[in-house]
UniProtKB/TrEMBL annotation:
Family: Belongs to the EMC1 family.
Record bears the keyword tRNA processing: no
Signal peptide range: 1-21
Keyword set includes Signal: yes
Transmembrane intervals: 946-969
Primary location group: endoplasmic reticulum
Domain EMC1 first beta-propeller: 22-408
The name this protein goes by in its record: ER membrane protein complex subunit 1
Coiled-coil portions: none
Keywords of this entry: Endoplasmic reticulum, Glycoprotein, Membrane, Signal, Transmembrane, Transmembrane helix
InterPro entries referenced in this protein's UniProt entry, alphabetically: Beta-prop_EMC1_1st, EMC1, EMC1_C, PQQ_b-propeller_rpt, Quinoprotein_ADH-like_sf, WD40/YVTN_repeat-like_dom_sf
The protein's assembly and partners: Component of the ER membrane protein complex (EMC).
C-alpha cells in the first residue's frame, strides 16, 4: 500500500513539473516583444505595379530591412552585427537588394520578396578608405547589372547574378582618397584627391578594368570635405578656408577648375559653410549657419543662387519621374508645421508639390528625407516622403497627411530605470460597487458555464469581451502584486520614453531640449538616467521624478547638463547647464524631507558637487560626511582608487568638496590590463546571512555593498579570441573591498582570455570567459563567506537577540573570509549577464544570460554552486545540491524569450515585483522584450489557469459530504439509543 501511494505521489510530482513549462496560448499574456530597426541611413523605394509596395532601408544599428509602404510594418530584416556597419544600399536586376558593409569588404545580395541571402562576396583590400557602392543603371555586362564597389583602396566590378568579382583594380599605390565614381559609355571614371590639393581622375575599361587614362591637376589651395557630383562631368568642393567654392570640370578627361567666393553669391554670408550631401542634377545645397542656399551650376561652370531658405532645411536626392525630368524635395520648419516642397530640377519657379504638415514637436527637426513618386488617376505626378526625424523616428507623409510613423529611437536604448504607477484613488460610489458586484457574480457564473462546457456561443462571446474589459495588466494604476510599472528609458537621440510594463505601449515621451544639437552644444550625449525623487509617504500628493544626465560631447571634459522629468506626465520640471563636467555620478543612500535623493557629481578635475543644492542636503551630508566612500577605475592606466570627501572647495561654492585618496591599487601594465569591473546593486535585498550546510553547520555570507569584482587580462589577450596563444593568455580576477582597498580574493585562470561578462549578487559572483586550451567558453563562480562569525552558532543567543547578523559591520575591521569557487564549461558566447531580484530576497536566484543568439536563458543558481560534487551524499541531495558535471546544461524550456529573439541584445534589467516569487525582466537591443519570471514558481499566489470552478465544486461536494455524514451519524446515534 505504501509503495502504491508513493508511486502515485511521484506521478503527481511529474505532472506538476510538466505544468511549469509555458503553453503556446500563454505566450504574450505576461510578456511582450517589440521589433525596431533604428535610425535610417539609406532608403530605396520599390513601388512596381506588381507585388507589394515597399521601401528598403539600412540603419545605424546595422539593420537591413524591408518595410511595408502602406503600414510601416516590417516584411523582413537582418541585423548584421555590431562591427558590420552598412555603407551602402541599392537594388540590382529589380529583384536583389544589394548591401555593402564592413568598410567596403562584404557585399551581399538579398532576395527582395522574402529577404533570403542569395550570395555574399568578400572583397579584399589593404588600405582604409571611404566605401562607395555604385550600380549604374545603363551599364550592362551580358544581361548582368555591373556592381561597382570601392573599398579598402580597391575598385571591384562584381556580377549582380552570382556575386563573382569580374575584375579588380588596386589604388593602394596611388594613395588616392576616392570620392566619386561615374561612367561614360564603356569607360568608368574614378576621381579623388591625394592629400588635399592633388586631384586625380582615372579612366578604366568597364569590361576588364584596364587603365585607359590617368589625369591629374594640382590645385593652388587645399580643400575641405568631400567632393560632390552635380553632373556627369562637374564636381564641387569647398576650399580649406570654407569660404570659397571650387568647381572642377572633367571634359573628356581634361581637368579644369574655377573658384568663387561665397560672399559673391550672397551678401552678409558669415560662418562656416558646409555642402549638404544630396545628389541633385546641376544643383547643390550649401548650409551657412541656419541658412540653406540652393545653388545651380550652369553648363559653363558658373554658380547661381536660385533660392535661400532661412530655417533649418533638409534636401533629398533627386529622382527621375520621366525621361529627362528630375524632381527633388526640400523641407523646413515653420511654426508648429513642416513645409514640404517638391521642385523640378530644371524649372525652379514651379512647384510639383507644396504641402504643410502638422507634426509632433517632440520628434524634433528633420534629419533626412527620401522621396518617391507615383502616378495619380489623372495622370499627374504624386509624391510620398519618408522622413527621418531628430529622435530617430521614421515618418511617411503623403497628400499632406502622416500615413504612418515608427518609434525607431527605441532601438538605441542607453539606460533604463523604473517608476511606480499612481495609487488608485479611493472613494467609489455605492452604485458603482453594486454594479461591480453584479458584474462579478455574472462573470463568475459565465466562467463556471464555460468550465463545465455548457456555455452557449453568446456566452462564449460575452466571456471573451469580459476578459478584454477586465484586463488588469494595462491599467494606469498600481496593482497589489506590483506587476504594473513604468519602464523609463533614455535613447541615444536624447529622448526619454515611459513604457507600460503591461503591454509595452508608450505612455509619454519627451525630446530633451538640452540634449538637442545646438550652437552651444554641438555633440550632445545622453549618459544615464536615475531615480531622483521617489515619494513614499506622499505618494498620493506628489509625483516621482527622474534625473537625466548628459554632456555636450563625448569627452569627459565636456560640460554637463541635467534634466528633471516628472515620471507620470513626462513634463520637464527644470533643466540645468552645469558649469562643471561629469566624470562619475554617485547616488547616495540618503533623502531629504521632500524625498529627493542626494547625488554626488564627480567632475573631471576631481571635485565633488552635491545635488540637490539645498541647505537641508548640506546638513544631511555633513552628518554622514565620514560614511561617504566611492571608487574610480582608470582602465587605461590600470589603476583603481578609493576616495572620500575632504573639505569644501577653495571656491565660493559651498556645495563643492575636495577629495582625498584613501588607497590605490596599481596593476602591473606589462602583465595585466583591466577589462571588466562589476559591483552589487545598491538596492539589492538579502533575506538572510546564514546558510545552513548539509551537516547542519552554518556558514555566514560575507555581505557588503562595497565589494568590487575586477577581471584583468594579459596584454596580448585583450583583443578578440585567437589573437593570443594559450601560453600568452591568462585572466586574473580580484574581489576588492572599495572602502579599504583590501584584496579579499585573487585567482588566475591560465590559458584564458576575455571578453569577460560578470554579475555580482549577495556574496557571490559569476563570470564568463573563453578557455583557449579547451577551445570552449567557461563560467566560474566565487562565493565569499565570513569566517569571523563562524562561532555564532548558539541557538539561545539567536533567540535572546545576542547576535544580530543583519547589523552593519565596518570594513575597517579586518575580515576573516574564505572563498569557494568552481568552473564549468558553457556552450554559448554571452552578450550580457544579470541576476533575478525579488522584493525580500527569499526566492532562489536565477542567472539570466543573454546569448549570442539574442535570446535570454534563465539558469538556476544551483547549477553554479561551488559545492557540487560527483557523488553527492544523501544529505547533500536533500539540500538540493546537483551532481557535478563538466558543462552547464542548456534546457530549451529555460529560454524566457521562448522562440523570440531580442535582435542586437545589449542589456538585461531585472526589477523586483511586490509579489516575492516574481521578478520582472526587461531586455533591450534593437528589439525590446519584457516578461515576468518566478524562479521558485508562484508559491505565494494562484496561477492564472487555476480552476476556480473545480474549487467551488470541491467545496460544494465537501459541504454535501459533511451534511450527509452528519445525518448518518445522527441516525446511527438514535438507533444506538433505542437499543
Amino acid at each position: 500500500m505504501a509503495i502504491r501511494v508513493f508511486s502515485i505521489l511521484l506521478l503527481f510530482l511529474s505532472f506538476t513539473n510538466l505544468t511549469f513549462s509555458l503553453y503556446e496560448d500563454q505566450v504574450g499574456l505576461m510578456d511582450w516583444h517589440q521589433q525596431y530597426i533604428g535610425k535610417v541611413k539609406h532608403a530605396v523605394f520599390h513601388t512596381q505595379k506588381t507585388g507589394r509596395k515597399r521601401v528598403l532601408v539600412s540603419t545605424e544599428e546595422n539593420v537591413v530591412a524591408s518595410l511595408d509602404l502602406r503600414r510601416g510594418e516590417i516584411f523582413w530584416r537582418h541585423v548584421l552585427g555590431t562591427n558590420d556597419v552598412v555603407d551602402g544600399l541599392d537594388i540590382a536586376l529589380g529583384k536583389y537588394v544589394i548591401s555593402l558593409s564592413s568598410d567596403g569588404s562584404i557585399l551581399r545580395a538579398w532576395n527582395l520578396p522574402d529577404g533570403q541571402m542569395v550570395w555574399e562576396s568578400s572583397l579584399q583590400g589593404s588600405m582604409a578608405s571611404k566605401s562607395i557602392l555604385n550600380i549604374p543603371k545603363n551599364l550592362k555586362a551580358d544581361k548582368d547589372d555591373l556592381i561597382l564597389v570601392f573599398g579598402k583602396g580597391c575598385l571591384h566590378a562584381v556580377s549582380s547574378i552570382d556575386g563573382e568579382v569580374l575584375w579588380r583594380h588596386d589604388f593602394v599605390g596611388e594613395s588616392i582618397e576616392v570620392s566619386h565614381i561615374f561612367h561614360s559609355h564603356d569607360v568608368i571614371y574614378v576621381a579623388g584627391f591625394v592629400g588635399s590639393s592633388e586631384f586625380y581622375v582615372y579612366g578604366l575599361n568597364a569590361k576588364n578594368g584596364e587603365l585607359l587614362e590617368n589625369n591629374h591637376a594640382a590645385l593652388p589651395y587645399g580643400t575641405f570635405g568631400e567632393l560632390l557630383s552635380v553632373s556627369a562631368d562637374m564636381l564641387v568642393v569647398l576650399d580649406d578656408t570654407r569660404s570659397n567654392l571650387v568647381t572642377i570640370n572633367l571634359n573628356n578627361g581634361e581637368i579644369s577648375y574655377n573658384q568663387k567666393h561665397i560672399s559673391d553669391l550672397i551678401k552678409d554670408a558669415s560662418g562656416q559653410a558646409v555642402i549638404l550631401p544630396s545628389r541633385l542634377p546641376g544643383i547643390f545645397a550649401l548650409k551657412i549657419n541656419s541658412h540653406v542656399l540652393i545653388i545651380k551650376v550652369t553648363n559653363e561652370g558658373e554658380l547661381e543662387v536660385v533660392d535661400k531658405i532661412n530655417n533649418a532645411a533638409v534636401v533629398s536626392d533627386a529622382i527621375s519621374i520621366s525621361e529627362g525630368q528630375h524632381a527633388f524635395a526640400f523641407v523646413h520648419h515653420g511654426g508648429n508645421k513642416i513645409h514640404l516642397s517638391v521642385k523640378d530640377a530644371n524649372d525652379w519657379n514651379g512647384d510639383l508639390l507644396k504641402e504643410s504638415i502638422v507634426i509632433d514637436h517632440q520628434r524634433g527637426n528633420i534629419d533626412k528625407i527620401f522621396i518617391n513618386n507615383y502616378v495619380r488617376t489623372d495622370r499627374s505626378h504624386g509624391f510620398r516622403a519618408l522622413m527621418v526625424m531628430e529622435d530617430h523616428s521614421l515618418v511617411l507623409v503623403q497628400q499632406g497627411e502622416i500615413v504612418w510613423s515608427r518609434e525607431d529611437g527605441l532601438a538605441s536604448v542607453v539606460d533604463v530605470t523604473t517608476s511606480e504607477l499612481p495609487v488608485e484613488k479611493e472613494g467609489v460610489s455605492v452604485a458603482k460597487v453594486e454594479q461591480n458586484l453584479f458584474e462579478w457574480l455574472k462573470g463568475h457564473f459565465l466562467k463556471l458555464k464555460g468550465t463545465l462546457m455548457i456555455a452557449s456561443p453568446e456566452d462564449v462571446v460575452a466571456i471573451l469581451a469580459m476578459r478584454l474589459r477586465s484586463s488588469e495588466k494595462s491599467k494606469m494604476t498600481r496593482d497589489h502584486n506590483g506587476f504594473r510599472k513604468l519602464l523609463i528609458v533614455l535613447t541615444r537621440a536624447g529622448k526619454v520614453f515611459a513604457l507600460h510594463t503591461g503591454d509595452g505601449r508608450i505612455i509619454w515621451s519627451i525630446l530633451l531640449p538640452n540634449l538637442r544639437k545646438s550652437e552651444s552644444c554641438e555633440h550632445p550625449v545622453g549618459l544615464n538616467i536615475y531615480q531622483w525623487q521617489v515619494p513614499h509617504h506622499h505618494a498620493l500628493d506628489e509625483n516621482p521624478f527622474v534625473l537625466v544626465v548628459g554632456r555636450c560631447g563625448p569627452s569627459l571634459a565636456a560640460p554637463a547638463v541635467f534634466s528633471f522629468i516628472d515620471a507620470y506626465t513626462g513634463v520637464e520640471a527644470k533643466s540645468l547647464s552645469l558649469s562643471h563636467t561629469v566624470a562619475q555620478v554617485i547616488p547616495l543612500p540618503y533623502t531629504d524631507s521632500t524625498e529627493q535623493r542626494l547625488h554626488l557629481i564627480i567632475d573631471f578635475n576631481q571635485h565633488a558637487y552635491l545635488y540637490p543644492r539645498t541647505p537641508e542636503a548640506i546638513d544631511i551630508l555633513k552628518r554622514e560626511f565620514s560614511n561617504v566612500y566611492w571608487y574610480s577605475v582608470e582602465a587605461d592606466n590600470g589603476v583603481i582608487r578609493g576616495h572620500a570627501l575632504k573639505s569644501n572647495c577653495k571656491a565660493v561654492d559651498e556645495y563643492c568638496f575636495d577629495l582625498r585618496d584613501l588607497w590605490s591599487i596599481v596593476f602591473p601594465s606589462e602583465s595585466e590590463k583591466i577589462i571588466a569591473t562589476v559591483t552589487r546593486k545598491s538596492n539589492e535585498v538579502v533575506h538572510t546571512q546564514a546558510k545552513v550546510m548539509t551537516d547542519y553547520d552554518v556558514m555566514y555570507k560575507y555581505i557588503s555593498k562595497n565589494l568590487l569584482f575586477v577581471a584583468n587580462a594579459a596584454p596580448k589577450a585583450r583583443g578578440e579570441i585567437g589573437t593570443a596563444t594559450p601560453e600568452e593568455a591568462w585572466l586574473v580576477i580580484y574581489i576588492i573591498d572599495t572602502v579599504t582597498g583590501r584584496i579579499l580574493h585573487r585567482m588566475t585562470h591560465h590559458g584564458c582570455q576575455g571578453p569577460v561578462h560578470a554579475v555580482f549578487s549577495e556574496n557571490w559572483v559569476v563570470y564568463h570567459y573563453f578557455n583557449l586550451r579547451a577551445h570552449r567558453y567557461e563560467m566560474s563562480v566565487v562565493e565569499v563567506y565570513d569566517q569571523s562569525r563562524a562561532e555564532n552558532k548558539d541557538v539561545w543567543k539567536f533567540v535572546l537577540g545576542k547576535h544580530n547578523l543583519t547589523s552593519p559591520f565596518s570594513s575597517y575591521s579586518r575580515p576573516e573570509v574564505i572563498t569557494k569557487s568552481q568552473s564549468y564549461f558553457f556552450t554559448h558566447s554571452v552578450k550580457a549577464i544579470e541576476v533575478t531580484s525579488t522584493a525580500k530576497g527569499i526566492t532562489s536566484k536565477q542567472v539570466l544570460i543573454g546569448t549570442i543568439g539574442d535570446q535570454v536563458l534563465a539558469l538556476d543558481k544551483r547549477f553554479l554552486d561551488p559545492r557540487r560534487t560527483l557523488n553527492p551524499s544523501q544529505a547533500e541531495k536533500e539540500e538540493g545540491i546537483i551532481p557535478l558535471t563538466d558543462s552547464l546544461p542548456i534546457i530549451s524550456q529555460s529560454y524566457i524569450t521562448h522562440s523570440l529573439k531580442v535582435e542586437g541584445l545589449r542589456g538585461i534589467v531585472t526589477v523586483p515585483a511586490r509579489l516575492e516569487s516574481t521578478s520582472l525582466v526587461f531586455a533591450y537591443g534593437v528589439d525590446l522584450f519584457f516578461t515576468q519570471i518566478a524562479p521558485s514558481r508562484t508559491y505565494d499566489s494562484l496561477t492564472e489557469d487555476f480552476s476556480y470552478a473545480l474549487l467551488l465544486l470541491t467545496i460544494v461536494a465537501l459541504i454535501v459530504a459533511i451534511f450527509a455524514t452528519w445525518v448518518l451519524s445522527e441516525r446511527k446515534d438514535l438507533q444506538e439509543k433505542w437499543r
